[in-house]
Structure formats: C-alpha cells, structure tokens
Amino acid sequence: MGNGETSEGESPEQRLAMLDDLRQAERRAVSARVAAVIAHLIGTPLHVIAGRASLIRAAPAEASVAENARRIEEQVEKLAKRIRALIDYLMGPESAPKEESVRAVVDGALSLYGPIAEVRGLTLKLTGSVPTASVEGTSALIVLTSLLSLATRVAPRGTTAELSVTLGADGRVAFELAVPGLVPPQGRIDSLEPPEQPETANVEELQVLSVCSAIVRRNGGQLEVVSQDTGTAKIRYLPARSS
Question: pLDDT tens, 208-223?
C-alpha cells in the first residue's frame, strides 16, 4: 500500500471528502426529521382550531360560540405544550465549556478541510499570523469547520478561499473567511425563516449559515456575511470573549 492510498484505492483526502458529504447528508436528514415531527405535532391542533374558527365566523351569534372558543383555547394550550416538550427534547444538555488556543482551532480546522478543498479543486489559505488568544474550543471548531465546508462547496474550482484571524484592541478574536462565489443570502441568517423566494435562493447555504449563527449567538458571539466587489463574500465570525 503506497502513495498514501488506502487498501480500497481511495486516498485519505478522498475519505475526508466523503466524510464531509456524509456530514452534509446527516444535517439534511436531521432537518427533514425535525420538520416531519413539527408537522405531526401541529397538524391536528391547527386543523381543529381552523375548523372551530370557521364555525364562529359562520354563526357568530349562536350559543355554540363559547364552546367553540373553549375548544380553540384547549387546542392552543395543547399545541404550546407539545412545542415546549419538543424544544426541551431537542436542546439537550450542553457540554462544559472548553478553552482552546486559537492556533489549535485553526490548525484543527485546516488539517481537516485543506485536503477536502484540494479534492474539490480549490485552495484554503491562511493569511497573516494567528494571534495568541483562547476561545471556547468546541463551538469554535464546529462553526469554523462548517464554514470551511461551505467554502469548499461554493467556491469555484481553481479559486482560493482565504482565512484570517485578528485580535482587536478590545481583545476580541475575529475569524474572517473570504469565499469566492458566495452570494450573501437575502434572508436573515439569525433565524431559520424560509426565504421569500425559495426557488431562487440557495437553501442549503442559508441553512448552514443560520445554524452557525445560532451556535455563535448561543455562546455570546456574532456572525455576519458581507458582500465584496470582487464577487467574493466575507464571513466574519466573532466568538464570545474568552473568560
């Protein structure tokens, strides 16, 4: 077995790319499952609410109005209870914060996605020096690898996505990833609201950015996407200030 190839004839880089494909497929499957569960939870209550509201509208003076209103209230309470239970189930316990050096996070992310970018025909480049600072390691690595994964899928072959890390005067770390070919989404990335024109939107890009934004905000950070004149968009990620 030579030239870095596995016994099945695939290189380690190809295996990493396959794992990234599986990561994306898993995310889509989770999204589909959550959507199906939500549809199941709210379907019947909403049907009952709509039906009772229709009866009230059709005969607002009937004695049955109070009973129909009671049934609507009952279904609203049931719906709220189901949604709260689903939220509690999906949130789950949080892992304890783990401080990591910015250098370790950057090296870990690039060691995983540099080879994947190569397989997909583009380059991931770290520009400038990496400041000596610490961030919450788990969330930072999840967000950074997700953004690099997005870059390897969006950037055209033969281009370079550039990552830089700076330290502001206030001691705040800032990751900036310039991605050729990335069009800033029209919808808000700080929510999972569907775009107004889903047929013209890149839904997968919006989903990835929305999930990353949720992780960042949950940990007290910020994420934004800024368009540039060169056909490149820059994703700016500011983790929460290290304690």
Answer: 888 888 888 888 899 9
What is the rounded CA–CA span in Å between residue 240 and residue 28?
Answer: 28
Low-confidence residues of the chain: pLDDT under 50: 1-7
Asked whether 206 and 179 are in contact (CB, 8 A), the reply is no
Cα–Cα distance measured from residue 221 to residue 238, given in angstroms and rounded to the nearest whole number: 5
- State the number of CA atoms in the 13 A half-sphere of 97 facing the CB: 12
Give the torsion through C-alpha atoms of 38, 143, 16, 233, to 10 deg: 100
pLDDT (0 to 100) of residue 1: 41
Contacts 24+ apart (CB under 8 A), 140-145: 140/100, 140/102, 140/105, 140/239, 141/100, 141/105, 141/108, 141/109, 142/215, 143/212, 143/215, 143/216, 143/223, 143/237, 143/239, 144/105, 144/106, 144/109, 144/175, 144/237, 145/109, 145/112, 145/113
**In sequence order, which ranges of the chain are alpha helices (DSSP H)?**
12-58, 65-91, 102-119, 137-154, 203-218
Q: How far apart are CA 219 and CA 138, in angstroms?
A: 11
Give the model's pLDDT for residue 193. Answer: 66
pTM of the model: 0.76
- What is the number of other CB atoms lying within 10 angstroms of the CB of residue 204? 15
